[in-house]
Design brief:
42% strand; OB fold (Dihydrolipoamide Acetyltransferase, E2P); four-stranded mixed β-sheet
């Protein structure tokens, strides 16, 4: 039995020695301490012979996270002139993520129309349907597509739910206030997030 057979496919726990750095470099799920590659998590060792890297594949299912191309629901937390911070809560199917993730919406990913600032597109408290553009946090978001954008908004004056009154305008039935947004074609059809 060769050294590769001793390393490949072995069950390990955090801190357990896998190999020395001269044999393989540390990859995902491992770390180097004084020239010894050790497991950073419980799992099974995997070796990439091409790059000479050893990593640990988790033995438990990792938590579900947003991925590039996913459509997600989020709540706008902060709005600045050129970007907004969004708390991503769940996916398009209404499944809640195990924890909330941070999303960033840049003004260039908000609409194809010219806008002076992001306040013309989204406001704090709006619920967005957005598409994820990358595979790691903070997640870059876009709402450019017709079906993406604000799916639920509340009046900036009285706080009541707003109704769609045009392609990019919302109106409050209680106080008559009218506000601009990048409104989703699915406005008012928010899927309830399930636990």
């Amino acid at each position: 039995m060769g050294r590769l057979d001793e390393i490949q496919g072995r069950r390990v726990t955090p801190g357990e020695e896998i190999c020395v750095i001269e044999e393989f470099l540390p990859g995902m799920g491992t770390f180097d301490r004084n020239g010894v590659v050790r497991a950073a998590m419980t799992g099974v060792t995997q070796v990439d012979m091409l790059s000479r890297v050893v990593f640990v594949k988790p033995s438990v299912n990792p938590p579900r996270m947003p991925e590039k191309g996913d459509v997600v629901y989020g709540i706008v937390q902060v709005v600045k002139d050129e970007f907004a911070i969004v708390k991503i809560a769940g996916d398009y199917h209404g499944r809640r993520y195990p924890t909330c993730f941070t999303g960033l919406l840049h003004i260039s990913q908000s609409t194809d129309k010219y806008v002076k600032n992001l306040y013309e597109v989204v406001r704090v408290g709006d619920i967005l349907k957005a598409k994820v553009l990358n595979n790691y946090p903070p997640y870059n978001l876009t709402i450019k597509e017709h079906r993406l954008g604000v799916v639920l908004a509340f009046c900036g004056k009285c706080g009541n739910r707003m109704v769609r009154s045009g392609s990019d305008t919302l109106r409050c039935d209680s106080c008559g206030n009218v506000e601009k947004r990048k409104v989703s074609s699915d406005y008012g059809q928010l899927r309830v997030l399930q636990l």
